[in-house]
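Hi there, hope your week has been kind to you so far. For a while now I've been wondering how a particular protein folds. I'm sending you its amino acid sequence along with the backbone structure tokens. Could you read through the record and tell me how the tokens relate to the sequence? Take your time with it, there's no hurry, and the full record follows here.
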Amino acid sequence: QVQLVESGGGLVQAGGSLRLSCAASGRTFNITVMGWFRQAPGKERRFVAAITWSGGRKYYVDSVKSRFTISSDNAKNTVYLQMDSLKPEDTAVYYCAAGDRTITAYDYWGQGTQVTVSS
């Protein structure tokens, strides 16, 4: 099992920045990918960004490209999401996820952290 703990959410004005962190513990040696998803009120949870644990390939949803940056510190088993130029539509609960099978399958989820962007 892998446990994930997110931090860094909060309230920010439009145009501002936030940095989310997600620390993994447990059976982290099998992790193949870590990612971020978000769920806005009344909407489904959607993919935001991901990074492969070996090689560091990065993937983003089109709506956050050039504004969000995913990175990792493998020695600390931590993944980050730097969010710049935030927009009100970025408001959501952000979830960290990890997978240990393929780079598209996520088996472990954090509890989520609220990000609110005011206009």
The radius of gyration is 13 Å. The chain has a mean pLDDT of 95. The first strand starts at residue 2 and ends at 7.
